[in-house]
Amino acid sequence: AVECGNRKAVLVPESSPGCEYKFGIYPESSSCSTNYIKCEYGYPYQTPCEPGLAYDDKTHSCNWPDLLLDQCNPEAVIGFKCPDKVDPHSVAAKFWPYPRFAVPGDCERLITCVNGFPRLITCGDDKVFDESTLTCEEPAHANSKCGHLKRK
Q: Is residue 23 within 8 Å of 40, Cβ to Cβ?
């Protein structure tokens, strides 16, 4: 161990406009936001959460808006209201209690309802959304207009 003697730590933040400390992650506002402020060397940068997520000040990260009900309205963030009932013969019902729905015109995402609240799910690993199965598939296997899409 290193002996530091009688020196004391100085814990006064080096702040600048928009940044309490030179480095850190801070909420953009006190209300629900899909952005946050990231401070680097005292400069604030507005940073977006991934689509469908909102900033969570407790974890200093982005989270599902339905886990932030004290400040967020998931339906407003996602732009979708989960139905109270699902046709038992529909493809969406196959995923009950977490029914899935297409995002019109979006070949990379789908909506799933968790406890009655919408969550936007992004297909990963170069997969695309298949409207006929409500799943993410390899483009060559997708039975929809998304089957010919090459992911960016």
A: yes
* CA-based nearest residue to 39, from 57, 17, 55: 17
Phi, psi (degrees; rounded to nearest 5) at 62? -90, 145
Q: What is the pTM of this model?
A: 0.82
H or E element in which residue 128 lies: strand 128-130
| CA 116, 120, 126, 128 torsion-angle sign | positive
- For the purposes of burial, counting CB atoms within 10 Å of the CB of 107, is it exposed (0-12), middle (13-18) or buried (19 or more)? buried
- Reported as a single tens digit per residue, the pLDDT across 50-65 is 999 999 999 999 999 9
